Amino acid sequence: MKNNLLSIGCILSIIFAFGQDKDITTNLYDTYEQYQEATIGKRRIKYSDIQPLISQYAKNPKFIVQKVGESIEGRNLSLISIGSGNINVFLWSQMHGNEPTATQAIFDILNFLDGQTFAEEKKEILSHLTLHFLPMLNPDGAEVYQRRNALGIDINRDALRLQSPEGKTLKKVRDSLNADFGFNLHDQSTYYNAEFTNKPATISYLATAYNYEKDMNDVRANAMKVIVYMNNIIQKYAPGQVGRYSDDFEPRAFGDNIAKWGTSLILIESGGYTNDIEKQEIRKLNYVSIISALHTIANGSYNEESVEDYEKIPQNDRKLFDLKIENVTYELLGKEYLLDLGIYRLEVDNENHNDFYYSSRIMDQGDLSTFYGYETLNAKGYKVKVGKVFPKIFPSIKGISKLDITSLLKLGYAYLKVANISLEEVSSKVPLHIVSTDFKQPKLYLEVGINPTFFLEKDGELAYAVINGFLIDLNSEKSSFKNAMIIRERN
Question: Is 490 exposed, middle or buried (0-12, 13-18, 19+ CB in 10 A)?
Fold first, then answer.
């Protein structure tokens, strides 16, 4: 009878823990704006943006802030710790300088841990866990918004040779903590999708393998269970938008080695989400799912998740375009062909690496029936038509401000000649390319690598414009247009 009572007690404890986890997840999502760190609202954050925040936590008695290393260019690497539990959890972000989504989420999480609400949940987390955050491992790369560090190497391929001071710091901290759990936080391309679906892989997970055989031990199994738990959370807010990263063993990578060294390693990749250019919804999902994961680690309820469910998460695939145009008719040398076009809107940083503009490209064409688009147009019955150059020359870009742009697009114009184009002007805010006075009428020739600018005609009427890869409905003016190009060189 006593054993039966104990069993019932254990079951009730698990049920209670799951109920708590569900409640904390919902409440975290609903109250997120209270804790979002407003000073870092765009992706291109730099070392100088987070230093005031780190300084605040250094003065806060709840936290311990330590300098644990320096980057190649001498920027401090800071570790922010809180909690008194026996389970050490190490979270690091921005190992790649152009992957800042989780860095922003870390400061949201720190705000949460410093806040007044969720007192019981935070007590449970901080009494069982000691949390250690290294929010920006590659500040030199962040400064110029690039993946690699100042040495030009990928820190995530430096776990064996340890030539980078950033890599040495990461290993030193992991070893000094002998961390039970590690959260390796990254961004991935927005062009990844959940396999066999048109849904972006908004979040992708990986419980890294620690050898080529991809063997299973308790360390890796625990990571898988936490990932299954987190996947269930993300499905509530981004259903079908979770992927599973390839677990092929990479002997040079930190994640694989950290798993080999005995830390349950949870890799999180922040991908794409429709109409979330700055990844702020994905930042929120990181916040909700990571805090919920810490809660389930603290109360142990993750142990009830099934390792087999980890394998049920769809694999990552890379089959997304920003714009996919299907079944369009394209005339070449007197014959008509049916094509699909896959278009990327590629980001180009400005000089200070704090903002960007788009320079789009056709990335593939032909039969793209196995690919998908964030935006898709079935152009069956439509013909591709060349964009024309407006005959008038304008003295400056200011001179085009009073033009009826919609009317020009409906007449098939895609280019405006301007006599004096300032070097400070790098893109056009209106959906027409700004070109130099010697620019010539382009030929209609579609190929991979060109800027996608053309019109779609049906029954003799222009119905759509594609300007720098942005689709514009000429009848409704519906568009996600961001910018056109400035073309200075002779065509």
Answer: exposed
273: three-class secondary structure by DSSP: coil
Question: Which H or E run contains 393?
Answer: strand 388-396
Question: Alpha carbon of 266 to those of 192, 228, 438, 480: distances in Å?
Answer: 19, 11, 55, 35
The H or E element containing residue 410 is helix 405-410
Spatial separation of the C-alpha atoms in residues 286 and 416, rounded to whole Å: 44
The span from the CA of 437 to the CA of 479, in Å, is 28
**Each residue of 161-196: pLDDT tens digit?**
999 999 999 999 999 999 999 999 999 999 999 999
CB atoms within 10 A of CB 289: 28
Q: Name the residue among 308, 314, 187 with its Cα closest to residue 245.
A: 314
Instruction: Print the SS3 string covering 415-469.
Output: EEEEEECCCCCCEECCCCEEECCCCCCCCCCCCCCCCCCEEEEECCEEEEEEECC
Residue type, 406: T
Q: List, in order, residues 6 or more apart from 269 with CB less than 8 Å away.
A: 186, 187, 188, 192, 201, 203, 204, 205, 206, 243, 245, 316
C-beta of residue 386 within 8 angstroms of C-beta of residue 407: no
Contact between residue 133 and residue 79 where contact means Cβ atoms under 8 Å apart: yes
Structure confidence by residue, pLDDT tens digits, 324-344: 999 999 999 999 999 999 999
Class for the domain spanning 16-317 = alpha beta
Its pTM stands at 0.93
- What pairs with residue 348 in β-bridges? 357
